[in-house]
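Protocol step 4 of 5: obtain the predicted structure for the target chain.
Materials: sequence only (see below). No template structures provided, no constraints applied. The aim of this step is simply to have a reference model before the mutagenesis design in step 5. Sequence pasted as it appears in the construct record:
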Amino acid sequence: MNWLKWHLYLAALCGLQMLLWIGSGLALSLIDEEYLDSNRYRLTEIGQPQSPPHHFHANAVSLPAQVTEIRLDSILSRPVYRLMLGEKSLSLWADTLTPMVLDEPLLRQIAAASINLPLEEQPQYLPGDETGFPASVKVALFKAYNDRNTRVLVDADSGKLLAHKDIGSDLKELLLMLHFMDYAPGNGIAFNHLGIRIFALLTLLMVFTGALVVWQRWQAGFYRLRKADANSQYLSVFDLNGNELGQFCAGPSLLETINANSPLLPTQCGGGGSCGLCTLVFIDTPPAATEADIKRLGEKVEQGYRLACQHGAYTGRVRLANKVQERYWHKQCQISEPGGNENV
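Step 4 output (structure tokens):
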């Protein structure tokens, strides 16, 4: 398996996400907080209930099921009992113990009481998942008349004021989504979610494949120290007719040795061992064939063919594998006839 290719793919994915993480973090720190604030028109003063709540007694009210939880709330300065009837809920006006009917005029009144701007008459009803409030089944959205696209969101079932939103908060939510890698719509911004777990897994796979690439290259001789030998300290490259094209000081790999100063040997896969353009034929004893050699070259490995990108430093004699390489070499050297060009 070509672990280098998998490593590069994983590195590209993780690197892209890291760029998004850094970029969104910088944007959040540099953009003026006032621009991102969607509550600039929000009325913060909430009046206390004007009338006291009646004492609640379950026998005094006709209920479809037994009350499991009761909570005192207020809407528009009027007390409200929030009742939990098993899995269902019911709201009663606490000053009259009558059911609270959340019709459109009341929802609009709740929204208008929270903002210092006029609102459009007709609301837009959306599922909670589409507005970032998955706990709400239906949300009433009221648009305000201003240039920031300010909206007031009210839970259509409970009358709870959910949020104010505008272009600033929309940008903030986008940046937070990118920063926390939370790309699932409608679930709110969180850190411990499936996306971050996938990213963590991809990062571990990137490290694992990188370790495998290092191991493969170590076996191919990339990172081994070699003693200088006065009789054989250079790599000599020959053309198809046996003419010496140049001598090169041994580098990290055969491909990097030859292409250190000029790209004399073609390649398209960046050393991944998949294109086969850097194939060389070993005149002297070849190194052991790698998995990439066998997969790409097949039976030619028995004849001394190897991929230059898959083998470490080598001192000895090799020749080009085909006419295409020879023409490319001469074009890069800007010569028309083979010669004894030295690149020591």
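Step 4 remarks: Residues 336-344 have pLDDT under 50 and may be disordered. The two ends are 35 Å apart (CA to CA).
Proceed to step 5.
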